[in-house]
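=== Structural record ===
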Amino acid sequence: MGRKGSPRSPQAEGGSRAASPPASSSPSPLWALPEELLLLICSYLDAQALGRLGQVCRRLRFFTSRDVLWRRIARGCLNSGFTQLGTDLAAGVPVKERVKVSQNWRHGRCRREILLKWKRNLMPWMELDGEYLYLSQAENIEAYRLCPDSTGLQRHPQAIFSGHQEDVCRFVLVNSHVVSGGGDGSIVLHKIHGSYSVKFSAHEQEVNCVDFQGGLIVSGSRDRTAKVWSLSAGRVGQCLHTVQTEDRVWSIAISPLLSGQLSTCLGTDFHRGAGVLDVFYETPSLLLSCGYDTYIRYWDIRTSTRKCVQEWEEPHDSALYCIRSDGNHMIASGSSYYGVVRLWDKRQTRCLQSFHLSSPTSSPVYCLRFSTTHLYAALASALHVLDFTTP
């Protein structure tokens, strides 16, 4: 039984109960306060003050490590696993640890490694799904299991998804399905945990981009069309709608709400050929785009699809091939020259950090993905990883 007036065992919100802190050798008036009041007092402290308070004694170290005290701080950090709406994308990982790693992202402290190399130049695409990394290799998509530290990959792929006669251009991973578009003009759908697969001819030329949600596939092609396809029973591979465009379609995305609204144009007054190469939805109404004109643009489609609400310019006048966001403050982009990955803070106008991955040979960053601890970048002949857990 604890002494009268001692606080309850600390507990991380949304996680398991922490081990009970050792009892203090001498009573302190601090512990006579109700736990709710202690939490309120600590909620006014910043990360540095909380860390120093936790160094006073073992009991305070346990108390100040609670997720509820670090959640407010984490929501203001880069890539700490919280979206703008407060959704926790990394539940189960102590929030205090994520705040520490976030400082490495901000200051560019990381360890770099090459995970895979291949003999001929490709235009790879990839997706992260928990403990697996899916990577396109020519006409196949290979699923590699990440090592426990998330830095390395197991030597051989756990699964290989095939079906295209030419290289895979892009693919998406949604609801345990892999949907890919290839240079042969076809779309292939695989169920990850099963033998079910569907292939159908979609475009007259290569399928540059695809997305999949709610029984619908959308695709864009070099043949200057975007199409919507059905996957409902009896209508698999049936084209529901075709959009004629003025140029090849490099990027396409379905709104998370699947509202039925079709937007074929973002912005005006662009130079001819300044196409969008990647699009990323943060929320059903907020999305990011990047492309040949070297800008990252932030759009709020509730207000306008003609004018963005914010933009950032690539400092070396390089086309941007890919983009991703943590859903909150951080953006990561991949450039067309010298394998440059840049980190951006939306609250600032200039690039926060940059990493050159392909020197001395030049290669675009065709695709990048990141977790709260690692960033993976696919270049023409290698897969790189930046490990931010180790300064």
Notes: Helices lie at 35-42, 47-53, 58-63, 67-75, 95-107.
